[in-house]
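Notebook entry, structure prediction.
Reason for the run: the old model in the group folder had no record of what sequence produced it. Starting over properly, with the input documented here first.
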Amino acid sequence: MRPKIERPPFPAWIDSSTRLAFTECELKGAYSGLYHFKPKSVSNHLSAGGAFAHGIEVARKIYFTEVRRDNSSSSSSSSSFLFFPNLSPAERADIASAAGALSAFLAKPEEDSADALGPKSSSRILLAVLRYFAEFPLDRDIIIPYINPRGEPAVEYKFAIPLPISHPETGEPLLYTGKFDMLAYYNGQYWPVDEKTTSRLGPSWASNFDLRGQFLGYTWAVREQGFECPGVIVRGIGLLKNDITFQVAPVRYPSWLINQWFDQLCEDIERFKKAWENHSYSQDFGESCGHYSGCAYKQLCLRPNPEEWVMTFFQKLEWNPLTEQDYTATDLLYEALCELT
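New structure, fully documented this time:
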């Protein structure tokens, strides 16, 4: 299909979501990764997962952030905790967990009556954060964030790695970018950690990640930055109607599989460039149109004049994994904590 919309600039970076959308359906990849058309309403599933992740991020930053007593040393003996340094680890963990739960509650968008009592309501997300830190206490968790020389925990870890592929307009190397919940140090190795909220855990849940391009990309990126990285650790949070459950899945990726993933990534990006240059994108007319709750762009494909309906259903919103999401309420919470300390 050749969209009757002016061809947009080619992006300077590619992430896992853009690559996946394009391989499922080239037109979907164009709408999402080139035009940056995003639905005007966010699904309750996505908003719940985002709010939960934000709560975990806030709690970890409060608990693990260190302030250096001098600018020259990076050893742990020359640092102290930024928040509540005079409290015990357990007391500080309790405060951080509560602050994280409150942040998650405030980050969850307003709900309609159907969602307000559901397993992904704001009150259930608040409870899920508290239950998470009861299961994995901040002061006793064996999987802890890497602390960089500035005393900052590697929470909401971002990366941008140059690829051996040139940008079709600038000639500069394209970047492969991403963001995951935490770069952890565990058993002498470095692991990307990703928390996944879900409605179903169990024996087959971890097998979903054996060939997950998102996680293969995380592992590749961490290795490219010089860390010894065997794979990823996925922590599942089951948001059930009457319970909140947990499951941990360490997933190891051999080097040969990482290499296969990388070769495929480069091939997919070259195809993406070619489609952009021709301003023509194939449509799937298959499973990608209806899996889960259906493709967000299906309502455009069902119309003979989709360009006239874009602004009715979508907004142009460019998401960049390297930028911070704005949470005003959390900023105010941080200011209050700094005042207390």
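Summary: Residues 68 and 79 are 5 Å apart (CA to CA).
The old model has been moved to the deprecated folder.
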